[in-house]
Design a protein that fits this description.
With 255 residues, the protein is α/β, with parallel strands linked by helices. The protein has a single domain, classed as Rossmann fold (3-Layer(aba) Sandwich). The chain contains 8 helices and 10 strands. An 8-stranded mixed β-sheet has the order 1-2-4-3-5-6-9-10, sandwiched between helices. A two-stranded antiparallel ribbon has the order 7-8. The protein is globular and about 50 Å long. The two termini are 25 Å apart. The relative contact order is 0.14.
């Protein structure tokens, strides 16, 4: 599949996109922090869409994967802007947003903007995998030591070893500031479409209680939470992938 490119923002960020033509509702993959569009779950979803004749769209945020830009320049609102631009340019008709970890936050912010535009008919459903909305405020900042907080304030960023990559995770002061402005779990989140949350109960990064807290902020009756008792944060084992694809099939009404 060829990589297409989209220029986004006043600073002309080069965003890499992989698009599969097909029927709607299609699927839009929204990856996690430091993840890219060729990860296990993203590729499995795309291949499944190919088998079913469904449209699928994936992209890398700026500073990720095949897209341009520096990772440390990234913020939640910046990555949401890019995701909306890809959504507008590369998809038509109703779509299902599939948000993994931080991508769940991006999906919720996209839904907020689509509602503001009066385009909620474009949102058919959401599948949120170990969603991490408001993670800077809810999950990270409370766990940082005073020394780490000072480092962010004085140095402008914090580096921590990553269990998923040889490269350290970088959390910038701008990320935390923007995260405060981008919070969604401050009241009811009106989505207006079915939402299915899948959460591992042995997730070391996003506690399963966070998924339940998110569900409480979603007032719609059509919200389902599936807990994977032995699941970790990635949910990338064969049995996890099979579960996610079964749920994707349910959301479009196919087996």
């Amino acid at each position: 599949m060829n990589v297409e490119h989209l220029v986004v923002g006043a600073d002309a960020r080069d965003i890499a996109v992989r698009r599969r033509e097909g029927r709607t509702p299609g699927f839009v993959w929204l990856g996690g922090y430091r993840s890219d569009m060729v990860g296990t779950k993203a590729v499995a979803l795309d291949e499944w869409c190919g088998e079913k004749g469904l449209a699928c769209c994936r992209h890398d945020y700026s500073g990720h994967g095949e897209s341009g830009g520096e990772f440390r320049d990234g913020t939640i609102s910046r990555w949401t802007e890019e995701s909306l631009a890809v959504f507008d340019a590369f998809t038509d008709g109703p779509q299902i947003l599939v948000g993994s970890s931080m991508g769940g936050w991006v999906a919720l912010l996209m839904a907020r903007e689509l509602k503001r535009r009066g385009e909620m008919e474009r949102l058919a459903a959401m599948l949120l995998i170990a969603p991490a909305p408001d993670f800077t405020h809810e999950l990270m900042w409370p766990k940082l030591s005073d020394a780490q907080k000072r480092e962010i304030e004085e140095k402008g960023y914090l580096e921590e070893p990553s269990q998923y990559s040889d490269e350290p995770n970088i959390y910038t002061h701008a990320l935390f500031e923007d995260g405060e402005r981008s919070r969604v779990m401050t009241g009811p989140i009106e989505i207006g479409c079915p939402v299915h949350i899948v959460q591992g109960m042995k997730d070391p990064d996003v506690p399963h209680q966070h998924a339940m807290k998110l569900a409480e902020h979603l007032p719609s009756d059509n919200v389902t939470v599936t807990m994977v008792r032995d699941g970790d944060h990635r949910l990338s084992r064969p049995q996890d992938i099979a579960l996610l694809l079964r749920i994707a099939g349910d959301l479009v009404g196919i087996g």
